[in-house]
UniProtKB/TrEMBL annotation, chains A, B, C:
Name of this protein: Ca(2+)/H(+) antiporter
Protein family membership: Belongs to the Ca(2+):cation antiporter (CaCA) (TC 2.A.19) family.
Signal peptide (from-to): 1-20
Organism lineage: Bacteria, Bacillati, Bacillota, Bacilli, Bacillales
Species: Paenibacillus algorifonticola
InterPro entries, A to Z: CaH_exchang, CAX-like, NaCa_Exmemb, NCX_ion-bd_dom_sf
Length: 352, 352, 352
């Protein structure tokens, strides 16, 4: 019964939201409708992820959620690259990485930690995640330093950017091979936590289908929401960097946000971590490199050189997330720490 | 009997030291008397801390010691802020942080490690301490990077400094809530090490009283000592930065130094770590932010921007201390490593 | 029988290689002969190291291998210092450190990991290694920052460089005392892995002798190889930095490379790690400081200031190696990660 009510609400709000967008209603109204719609859609997505995680394990469930979530971002960024809006692309990549590592992970640990004294996930996975984050920082950091050297021409810059992009993608693909095939068991959560939930409502195939549908809905609604925010932000005089790195990242990652928090509150912290950290790794090691290669194929190469401010934000996020998550144990205070760093960065980006 | 002799010596030397200071005796004589007096006072303080630790646990004992020790510094720094001597305040904050992380912790690990092959303290505490140190570095580092951006006005600088200060204080207060209330047991040392000492001489209430008295005595004598050093240093042509960050920090933290080393040698390494790391965290996350807010209330805001040299010193100290203390196990060589880094920084500051 | 064939091949190829070098044959021919010779010599060295490790434990075996390997480099660098070629010395120090941490360690973990699902070595050793690497980075980093300060004269630069050099050597000597004497047992590999191999062919004394002979042979052949590369590189227009930091480092460290990989494939990962990380620590904490002191004694001081690019390469290598090796467990993917970072740095150095 409650189930039925929920899905009715979901479909009605999604339709309303679409109508509001395509009939160009008043921006404030559009915003309000989409905001309600996204709450329903996010709830749906959380349910679907949990159901998939039941069949496929927390990691694969989290991975699928992160991938579908990032697919939407990849598509949006692709169009920005086509139009040559490289700075905005990099700002939104930065925002996605720090948003996932600090906001999504922070809220998950806080929400989960307020309910459970201490939550555990696979420590080996935690350490491998940390190392991959370090690789991502190195991949962004090294070109930025070398580009400052004398006689470093634009051609060299582009070549280095493409080479690093290929290496990062290769590292990511091999990571999937390692973590999903050769060492799958080593990185799995202990059965204990996997068995906690009740029987899911959907079959295996249906769960995956629902996950896809839910992700698509969230992607559409968040796209409409972002559209309204654009007007809002010009009205309030916010900088492009702040909008790209914070507003868009927060709304655009609504899928990850909601699913991760819901899973954390059900003590499936392994899946929550996979969504948050896995998603930011995917952006740094796959989405960003793919965009660079795509830009080169389109004839105008976007380099991998981020601004010092963006690099600082990413490096800082990686170090605190690494420090927090490295032991495979989480509690509410670790969530607070991540959110604090997010606040510091948010205020700094707002002021710049 | 020995007890009685000790307290007679303490009171006599304290009185002598006070007389020497207020009658403006010859500086060299003042220095000699205060130096002897501080040895007695430090011994007294160590005794009192150990006694409190017996009743309240190693962590609370260490925390109280650190807090009373920093109270003196806060008062001195407060007057410096009032006079607008911001550079000296920051130099002494830097000195306090690196002095505690490298000198106090290094001497404690070395002294304890020469007596015991391996000493242990709560590993979860070690990891939380590490993460908090990373937060402190981020809090100091982010504003320094962003302030370099174009169009970053003084008003923005002050706003960012105040915002970061509020966030750091909030993080520190929540840390106390977390570590002293909600997750107290998780961060406690195992009983094994807590039970080692013999029966203390004082009751619970008397122990705390003695701790307060001892801290006040140490604060006074170290203040008098600092006063004599001022003349010494001008005579030897030392830079203000070196005096602020090393001489004053060493003498001004005499309380922490002596107590931590004494506790480490009695195998209460948990209390020693709490004094050293706890004290530097308190300075970075509480004392420094409070001074910034106080300066704003007094009408002339001190910003949170440290010089690149100071930031380097702090970051370097945090990373080596994190690397050394992260596993909750200590030995003499780890103490040596910390002291080596202290020497490198000391020489570098001396030369600048 | 196979044994006999191998040694015949070794001696013949070594002789050929020497003849080719001293009769100034065609460079391409010299290169081909030396390249085959070094394969034999490296195999010999691996055998000898393994034999020593059997008697003396994995750590001491690895340490001896690393020391003999670095002795050759120290001698070459000594002559470069004498001729005042400080930049080339620093480039090759940089190359040795990153080559050992990324290429040697990476290949070892990959080769070992393809054969064994997970390999283990002493975790306490891993953590101490990490901390020493952090010390090395600090020792190189602090002077580079302070030298940028105003009024920092050349005399101060030299004094600081010498002081840091003395401190690093002291730290290294105490490390040997700690790890080989006072806490030897704590850092040893568990017997399990030490007992794996079959009975070695040589006695204890003969094994050490063979290790010395093998190292000397490798040193000579790699020197001849480096000589041929010089012509090659000018022909292909490579930068001095790239040749110094990559080509020379790869060939010059052939001893470490081969021995470490062979040991890793026999599941003696502890010895492989000791060779790779131990060797880079020895270079950073002993070889480099000794060269600085030697240069001062020869009347023209080489300072410890590395270029930002070199510092980045070293810091980046240390952080990924620390992140990978910190838990005392290794697998093929961790090897891949190290090699990826090596590729990124290699391409960047090539382009500069």
């Amino acid at each position: 019964m409650r189930q039925k009510l929920f899905f009715t609400g979901l479909i009605v709000m999604f339709a309303f939201s679409a109508i509001a967008h395509y009939t160009h209603m008043d921006m404030t109204l559009q915003f309000a409708i989409s905001a309600i719609a996204i709450v329903f859609a996010a709830g749906f997505l959380g349910k679907a992820t949990e159901s998939v995680a039941h069949y496929a394990g927390q990691r694969l469930g989290g991975f699928l959620n992160a991938t579908f979530g990032n697919a939407a971002e990849l598509i949006i960024a692709f169009f920005l690259v086509k139009e040559g809006l490289f700075d905005m692309v990099k700002a939104s990549i930065t925002g996605s990485i720090i948003g996932n590592l600090l906001l999504v992970l922070g809220l998950s640990l806080l929400a989960g930690g307020l309910k459970f004294k201490q939550q555990h996930f696979n420590q080996q996975l935690a350490q491998h995640n940390s190392t991959l984050m370090v690789l991502a920082v190195i991949g962004l950091f090294v070109p930025a330093i070398f580009v400052g050297a004398e006689h470093f021409t634009v051609e060299k810059d582009h070549f280095l950017s493409l080479a690093v992009a290929v290496i990062l993608i290769l590292a990511y693909v091999l990571w999937l091979l390692f973590s999903m095939v050769t060492h799958k068991q080593m990185l799995e959560d202990s059965e204990m936590s996997a068995d906690h939930g009740e029987e899911p409502a959907w079959s295996k195939g249906r769960s995956v289908l629902m996950l896809v549908v839910a992700t698509v809905m969230v992607a559409f609604i968040s796209e409409w929401l972002v559209h309204t925010l654009d007007t809002f932000t010009t009205r309030f005089g916010l900088s492009e960097l702040f909008v790209g790195a914070f507003i868009i990242a927060i709304v655009g990652n609504a899928a990850e946000h909601s699913a991760a928090v819901i899973l954390a509150m059900r003590n499936k912290i392994g899946a929550a971590v996979e969504i948050a950290i896995g998603s930011s790794l995917q952006i740094a090691l796959f989405v960003a490199p793919v965009l660079i290669i795509a830009s080169a194929l389109m004839g105008k190469t976007m380099d991998i050189i981020f601004t010092p401010i963006e690099l600082t934000a990413i490096a800082v996020s990686v170090f605190i997330a690494k420090s927090v998550s490295g032991d495979g144990q989480t509690n509410w205070y670790e969530g607070v720490l991540l959110l604090m760093v997010y606040c510091i960065l948010g205020i700094a980006f707002y002021l710049v």
